[in-house]
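worker-03 picked up job from queue 'complexes'. Input manifest follows; two sequence lines, order preserved.
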Amino acid sequence: MIDTSRRGLMAAGLAAAALPGLALAAAPPVGRQVPGLYRRRIGEIEVTCVSDGSIALPPAVFGEANLPETRRVLAEAFLDGNAPVPCALNTFLVNVGGRLVLIDTGSGDWLGPTMGQLPANLAAMGVTPDKIDIVVLTHLHRDHAGGLLDKENRPLFPTAELVVPEVEMAFWTDDANTGKVPQGSRGGFPYAKQVEAAYRGRIRRLARGAEVLPGITAIDAFGHTPGHTIYRVASGPAQLLVFGDMVHVPAVQTRFPDWGIAFDVDPAGAAATRRRVFDMAAADRLLVAGMHVGFPGLAHVRKAGDHYALVAAPWQSAL
Amino acid sequence: MIDTSRRGLMAAGLAAAALPGLALAAAPPVGRQVPGLYRRRIGEIEVTCVSDGSIALPPAVFGEANLPETRRVLAEAFLDGNAPVPCALNTFLVNVGGRLVLIDTGSGDWLGPTMGQLPANLAAMGVTPDKIDIVVLTHLHRDHAGGLLDKENRPLFPTAELVVPEVEMAFWTDDANTGKVPQGSRGGFPYAKQVEAAYRGRIRRLARGAEVLPGITAIDAFGHTPGHTIYRVASGPAQLLVFGDMVHVPAVQTRFPDWGIAFDVDPAGAAATRRRVFDMAAADRLLVAGMHVGFPGLAHVRKAGDHYALVAAPWQSAL
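worker-03 finished. Artifact:
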């Protein structure tokens, strides 16, 4: 007797493709990734890493002259240096005593469908933009601030206070600075003014080293942009250093911390800041959160001779 | 005028804790981790890493004599060698042409509430146990096979075919082998017989090197247990090596690949297998999936002198 039951066919090792007439593919592939969400408790503070997606950067973003070395270290990290390199984009939602503080907003609709996933990921955890109490920016580059406005330049966070480092806001709202930034970043000047207009009356220009609110404190990390700012999230002895754009491609910039990336306004300043922040994180064994560190973006920094390595923090299946 | 609005109080930097009378904590902490799910496409095959949770192992599990070295490499990985060390537990759900194959079942209710999360995580993706077509085991240790039975030893997968490597099944169903395993593993003998009884009539004893079904092929990896088996998932040129218990604490066993762990039935054999599988994965630059590699468990193996390192595969926000 020929066994035509599903199990019988399976045991016979017949592939679904060979049996077009049968109702196979009983479980179609899901076909999509899970929401980019991950949680970590920092003392009494709950931090959720919320992915905005990922984009691919050309390896030459670290300079044509550095391409051979770039490709070598990418290969060591099992990345293909002859193709665009994945660059994650994370934001961090911080719940401090019931108030929701979103650090960076993702890229909005500015960088295509592989990015701009913040709203969908927030929705997957039941958070709509009107629930956000404070939006705070590391800097005004559009991949971090593009999620502030819709296509008609209306605010996407209807009630949030917008906290922008004052040095950063001053720089990008002054057209006299246009010549100081890479050609590709000049859209930042009109964008800053659109943000200023859209959020008028609820923008706080954050002084250097000031508190966003108790538990979140700014630290200067100038260079990548003139007012690039990172944030210490602290509750009791527990802390997390949300270190913004210290790296864009960790495999490359930990190995060659002195290299700039094409988007740096001041590559040498960015490199000096990178070493200062890495040294601090390594010495204090700080948990860090990087906007461009592979999701969920949490790691420690290890000093390795004259360079560094990021050691991803293990996924915790419970808070 | 005193601004008593919510924003005014926030701007004044007053902590929620200081204002007990007000309706603060508008957004209570979520208080739980996201479901432990992550997807990766291997050619036409969709693999979902499904976490069963995590457990903590005493650092002495690698031997009292190795404690100083164990602590040193744990510290390098920013883990506390003076406390129990987290050990993740992953399973992998493989969709091959519409058939759902679950590799390992997690620990069931055998290891307490930080483990046994497979059913809840499967449910979070809409998969109930009756949807699983094939359950295939790497080995019969209870953290991998404990999810087969409920407390009354009834099968938790009501319709699945159960595929067990034949060498493994033969070993654990023969009481003559009792003296060959560590004291703490002897419960494996009665457990194997309970499994055999519960799944009678739908158990397939998998020959060495055989196909589970087209796309999933067994590879001997004996040592950790006598029939410990790993699986190559392949679709066209794409492949993933689901390498079972090649490591339990990657930071330790990549650095000291010749060390056994207390649960090894044959520590020397396990170490030789570890080197063979690591060498193969490193030489072929294979993507590997480890049951005890930090969730989602996907990595590449790098050879580093006489030892190895695992390089976590970056999270992909799209399939």
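worker-03 released lock.
Chain A has one domain: 36-312.
Residues 1-22 of chain A have pLDDT under 50 and may be disordered.
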